[in-house]
Specification:
This protein is an alpha+beta fold. The protein is built from 3 helices and 2 strands, in the order H-E-E-H-H.
Amino acid sequence: MRLKSGAACNRTCTYRFKIRVIGSFQVKRGARRTRPAVNGLGISTDEAQRCRTHSPVPWQVLEYPLIDRSLDRTACAQIVVDAGLPVPGKSSCWFCLSHRNGE
């Protein structure tokens, strides 16, 4: 991955601030290899290439509920609107180096 400046960037923040934190939370609540936690990831059909078949964390099983229901980002936004709620922006860390200035 490259930053807007053109400099190379790795995504260790995803591991440090998401995967590791969620994994620790699951272990504290009893997740084990023999009794894994199910992680529902919010990846829609327009970014299906991001899906993985297995988790790098041995006590997690990955599921993709939006993919399973054939929902793209537009369909997800419509569900939110139909519920009378404001459509949120894309999810990412507020301090992400990959953001543009306006984000």
